[in-house]
Amino acid sequence: MARIKSAVKRHKQSLKRRARNRHVRSTLKTAIKDVRSVIVEGTVEKCAELMRNAASVLARAGSKGVLHKKTASRKVSRLAKAVHKATKK
Asked: Which CATH architecture has domain 5-87?
């Protein structure tokens, strides 16, 4: 365990950040999984709503630094592409 005051503080901050990042990533994975499962089922009405939610969560994660902004954008794009393909069937 750190003994220096600044090192103790940095450790506490890193634990807080880790907990926050884990929560955001978990929420993100759930949102993406929900969209993908609805795509497989083929229900178009639910698909748009869940896609909007997932895009919002991804954008928030990108802006907060949990994910890189371009990674978040790429994931939104690929998800939207999959939704569009599913709704055209």
From this structure: Up-down Bundle (1.20)
CA-CA distance, 46 to 79, in Å (whole number)? 14
pLDDT in tens, 10-53: 999 999 999 999 999 999 999 999 999 999 987 888 888 999 99
- Extract long-range pairs of 77-83: CB within 8 Å, 24+ residues apart: 79/32, 79/35, 79/36, 79/51, 79/54, 79/55, 80/51, 80/55, 82/35, 82/36, 82/39, 83/35, 83/39, 83/47, 83/48, 83/51
How far apart, in whole angstroms, are the C-alpha atoms of residue 48 and residue 24? 21
pLDDT at 60: 96
CA proximity to 31, closest of 70, 57, 67, 60: 57
Domain boundaries, the chain: 5-87
